[in-house]
Amino acid sequence: MKSRSINPLINSFFTLGISCIALVNQANSAEFFDDKVHAKLMFMQGFQAIEANSGAFAISNADMAPGFQRLRFNIELAVKIHDYVTAYADLGEEPNDFGTDDQFEISQDLGYIDLDIFGLAGRAQQDQSWLFRAGNIVSTVFDYRGYSDGAAVQSNPLIGNSPIDFVTAESGIQSLWSQKVSGSAITQVNADIGFTVPTFFEDYSGDRGFNTFGRLSLNTDFGLDLGLGWFTSSLGDQVANRAFTDVQTAGLIQGDGDNYNFAASGAGSRDTHAGLLPGLDASILQINAHYQASPNTTFRAWAGIAKDEFSFVDGNGEQTVANQAVAYKEIESEINYYVIETTQYIKPNHLYIASRYSSVTNKSSAISGDKDLSRIQLGLGWWLTQNTLFKAEYVKQAEGNASAGQIGADWDGLTAELSVIFD
User: Fold this and answer.
1) How much is the CA Rg of the chain, to the nearest whole Å?
2) What is the spatial distance between Cα 258 and Cα 84, in angstroms, rounded to a whole number?
3) What's the rounded Cα separation, in Å, for the pair 10 and 414?
4) Among 100-109, 135-144, 220-229, 406-415, whose mean pLDDT is lowest?
5) In terms of CB atoms within 10 Å, which end of the chain has fewer, N or C?
6) Tally of CA atoms within 13 A in the half-sphere of 330 that contains its CB
7) Is the pLDDT score of 245 beyond 80?
8) Which has the minimum average pLDDT: 137-151, 182-196, 346-360, 376-390?
9) Residue 214's domain spans which residues?
10) By the 8 A CB rule, do 233 and 206 touch?
């Protein structure tokens, strides 16, 4: 960061801090139609002062000013259709996800219908659950953790997500099963499998293909939860038949919208996420872990291998990253990655510190240079009331010249965030 950015940053943090002290949020139950419709409202205002080093792909990213982000808000609606049939919709104004540069808009971010299979069959059970889900569903390989999505940020102890968060929403179906276990250190077993098209819009062209993903996890009575996630896609036939910009790729490969943005990036860009794999004929295998060491100490970790039969390529036909690409080429791309996250409450239920380290290595063959991308995030969270959270974070991302990084140079900065939930 250049020194000229520090004074505006201090002034903005001071102003935001004073606003936090004055804020009071009353948490009430938002229930309608004889308790058959539940509404949750979320609001988030962010501030950033980030900048890339010289050598970035876009010159403007190395000469940035601090500033306030657009307000994010979400309205979640959960509807009880029947004892065994429910529906859910998340409507939001999320410029970091599906926002546009020139207008404000409320869009569907997520929405689905759930059928309780055991209940509808007249065999409702206390210890076993089986849901069939259809709609615009979450497609992911991670577990045991939250992430920032529009104004839904309070399940993420930090402000930004990881540069290796494989998650999105797509149109499809999913089966989710769980079984409680008695008399064992394992308290519950969970499994799900999903089948989607690579968009939550509509595309019926014969060369499009499908995505398939699933998870298996175990919960224990000593605080350790372990899981395995997998993903595969068959979308590569499009490359021979469609223009580069018309190819539908697996959205989870590029992650959900992050709460950092650069001067040269669009409002809903994925430029801070690892961008090596196109998401065509791709596969992912990921392990997930969560350990609640004490009521005030949490550890999370995930690690995996992701591959694709295709690569993004530049004008010379050489492998590159998503925002520098002009075409796809049948060259295998591969990354190995891991992430470690910790949260420690200093004052229970009120004040915490958090950290996250993410590492991504380009394992593609015949690639030379610095292949590593890493991000370190250090932050604190202050619960002003039960549903009012102020967060501050320092972030630094290092991008090697042959890495999955899309900014093209190292970058760092400070961010702040104020969020509320009415539930």
Assistant:
1) 22
2) 35
3) 10
4) 100-109
5) C
6) 6
7) yes
8) 137-151
9) 3-422
10) no
The CATH number given to whatever domain includes residue 392 is: 2.40.160.10
Nearest to 265 by CA among 135, 46, 95: 95
Contact assessment for residue 111 and residue 136, using Cβ atoms and an 8 Å cutoff:
yes
Q: What are the φ/ψ torsions at residue 399 (nearest 5 degrees)?
A: -125, 110
SS in 3 state form for the chain? CCHHHHHHHHHHHHHHHHHHHHCCCCCCCCEECCCCEEEEEEEEEEEEEEEECCCCCCHHHHCCCCEECCCEEEEEEEEEEECCEEEEEEEEECCCCCCCCCCCCCEEEEEEEEEEHHHHCCCCCCCEEEEEEEEEEEEECCCCCCCCECCECCCCCCCCCCCCCCEEEEEEEEEEEEEECCCCCEEEEEEEEEEECCCCCCCCCCCCCCEEEEEEEEEECCCEEEEEEEEEECCHHHHHCCCHHHCCCCHHHHCCCCCCCCCCCCCCCCCCCCCCCCCCCEEEEEEEEEEEEECCEEEEEEEEEEEECCEEECCCCCEECHHHCCEEECCCEEEEEEEEEEEEEEECCCEEEEEEEEEEEECCCCCCCCCEEEEEEEEEEEEEECCEEEEEEEEEEEECCCCCCCCCCCEEEEEEEEEEEEC
Number of domains forming the structure of the chain? 1
Q: How far apart are CA 216 and CA 226, in angstroms?
A: 9
pLDDT digit string, tens, across residues 375-385: 999 999 999 99
Task: State how far the alpha carbon of 291 is from the alpha carbons of 2, 124, 217, 278, 303, in Å.
Answer: 39, 31, 13, 33, 15
Cα–Cα distances in Å, from 190 out to 15, 84, 170?
45, 20, 22
Spatial distance between the Cα atoms of 142 and 285, rounded to a whole number of angstroms: 10
β partners of residue 283 = 232, 307
Q: Which residue has the tokens 């299979």?
A: 117
C-alpha span between 220 and 225 (Å, rounded): 6
Beta strands at 128-140 and 167-180: parallel, antiparallel or unpaired: antiparallel
